[in-house]
Write a structure and sequence with these properties.
The chain has about 150 residues and is an alpha/beta fold. Helices cover about 25% and strands about 15% of the residues. The chain contains five helices and six strands; from the N terminus they run E-H-E-H-E-E-H-H-H-E-E. The strands form two sheets. Strands 5-2-1-6 form a four-stranded parallel beta sheet, covered by helices on one side. Strand 3 and strand 4 form a beta hairpin. The longest helix has 13 residues, at about 25-40. It starts with 15 loop residues before the first strand and ends in a 9-residue tail after the last strand. Belongs to the universal ribosomal protein uL13 family.
């Protein structure tokens, strides 16, 4: 009989990581962040449990996209009222709320259930280089989203 592996609670240590989004590709960065939030980079990964870490993203206003996505990628939101659909392009949203771009990209890569909502609370995104999480002593990690970049 096979049993599902459940890591003991005392072995799950959650760390804080700091990611600099300046000049990074949006989708590739979001994939790496989602894997860290989910805990897929750890040997004790369990699909139905929160074994992931906290991620702080700084410089969200300097994120890059390729091709014509700057003018053609559309973000939609709905107020819930009839005719309440609002749309704006990547460039407009980046000028208004740059944090939301990274948040939406990562949220789309997490599970669509209560676990995904719980994991999403562990993502902290900031437009500039400053963040209020110095007390957690985040470990800076370098994510390579551009091939050939050093």
């Amino acid at each position: 009989m096979t049993k599902t592996y459940i890591p003991p609670q005392d072995t799950i240590n959650q760390q804080w990581y700091l990611v600099d989004a300046a000049d990074q590709r949006l989708g590739r960065l979001a994939t790496e962040i989602a894997n860290i939030l989910r805990g897929k980079n750890k040997p004790e990964f369990t699909p139905h449990m929160d074994t992931g870490d906290f991620v702080i993203v700084v410089n969200a206003e300097k994120i890059k996209v390729t091709g014509k996505k700057r003018s053609q990628k559309v973000y939609r939101r709905h107020s819930g009222r009839p005719g309440g659909m609002k749309t704006e392009t990547f460039a407009q949203l980046q000028a208004r709320i740059p944090e939301r771009i990274v948040e939406q990209a990562v949220k789309g890569m997490l599970p669509k259930n209560s676990l995904g909502r719980q994991l999403f609370t562990k993502l902290k995104v900031y437009a500039g280089a400053e963040h209020p999480h110095q007390a957690q002593k985040p470990e800076a990690i370098k994510i390579q989203t551009i091939p050939g970049d050093k």
